[in-house]
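Data availability (excerpt). The following record was deposited with the supplementary files.
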Amino acid sequence: MDSSAPPPRSSADPGASVFVWGVWGASLLLALWYVASCGPDVPLWDDYAVAPQLCDQAPVTLSWLWSQHSEHRIPLARLVLLGVFRADGADPRPVMILITALLAAASAALLGAAARAPEGRKYADAFLPLLMMHLGHHDNLLWAIQITYVVPTALLCLVLRLVATQDEQPSLIRCGLVAACLAVMPLCNAGGLILIPPLALWLLAMGVVEARSGRPGGRARGVLILAESAPALILAALYLRGYSAPRHHAAPAGVFAALRTALQFLATSLGRPGVWLWPWSGVFVGCLSAAAGAVLLGAWCSRPKERARVAGFLCVLGAVGALALATGWGRSGEDDLAGLQPRYTTLAAPALAVVYIVIAYYGPVVLRSLVPMVLFAVFSTLLWPNTQEAIEAGRNARERAAVFDRDVAAGMPPYRLVRRHVPFLHPSQRAMHGYLEMLRNAKIGKFGRIRRDPSFRERPVALSPADVRLGRWTDGELIATGVDPWVRFELPATERIAGVRIRYDHHNDDGSPSRFRLAWRSLGDLDFPADKQYGDWNLETGEDREVTVWIDDVVSQIRLQPDNRPCRFRIRELTLLRDD
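Predicted structure:
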């Protein structure tokens, strides 16, 4: 007797549907409560990418919508943020609620797929809402721009649901829905683009098989299925047209580093504990994914009548694997733990969802009993540490947003807001200062209450450094010869300054942006304290550039690091700005 043969549906656990949907509802309510109570009411980081269009400083055009944002094209996210911010004064919380709803819909789709498994509904299916809606997703729940991560994840879960209900004969409606999901993916980000080839391969295969099936109307249905895949493939080709790799990312570090980083990416599917438990978390998810692949290959050989569904599962598993490998290759040059980014949790979660569904459909009896319960037990155990981590992060985000609101109400000018709230609001002082002035002038929400900067009194600093490290100083130019070079200037007198403006020329070997850092200290400081430093890892290179670092502190010395590698850095002017 075949041990992998499906048992009758009557083996479904009694009362399992009530339990599973109860867990889904409780998870949704918890996520909504979390967003409502902890979501910051101010945009963060890349949320400000739509500020020029929001403030009518730049037009909303197809060219802008399709333009690159780092390595991504994010027209869908831009439209969502722009529409919501216009309606509510740049409050990102409605987008956070939409993100929560998308994750809830994704888990509902997965539950629908699990219910169609041979054994029917099981108590362990509650793993799926825990996987998709636990608060370990908090980096994406509390950041509006991350809808660009969540949409392709939700679409992939829907594709998995559609594949799970695939019969021997392809359905035009089902294939059309899969094709529609694929067509939206390249509008989200590079991750959505990576998912397309394996999933499109399934559609193309279904079209070819149906066209050659000899069934009545089969050729016409096959041609239509092939045509349905065209929009996604055309958009994928357009995505790559004119694409340029961002220069601020490190080059890939080789095959081994890429595989390690890919495994780290998969480990984040466990949430923050996946980071803490590395490398065992990566081994756990990697082995489960490999087991799911082996089960599908066995099902392909033993169940020829179900090859359409098996091929679909293989392509979904391949899409998740392709995303992991692409992330591993692209981030392997950053550092040894580059793949353990908490924001990857949402992107990596479908890996375990595919494992669960595949085992439920085609796993041997032992695996059908063991793997679902192990996954449910693991995520039940990790629920508290994920929740605890999220509550701490959410409380911090809410408190920092509340401090910003109080500072705005107190009449702080932009330069002080920037000094106090970078990098919480945005990593770049220069960019954030421009966004605050833009939003204030356009009277967008609370930003319209920000008052203007005062007129600053300027005082130049003599370009005679007190000390130079890993370089030599010649006629106003630092020729840096090592890693993390710097030049230090003594001020004539200890005084409170608003900021420092630097006009400079910068050149390094590959023309990539400068990894710049400026630090200051006052009398009594033994060194340059961590809270008296500002870094910009994407400072413009080239001739006659300018940057202002807002300090708002009492200063006696300034230490300037022009880059973290050999370079040439000429200071044309070093000017103190005083708010008198």
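Summary of structural features: Confidence is low (pLDDT under 50) at residues 1-10.
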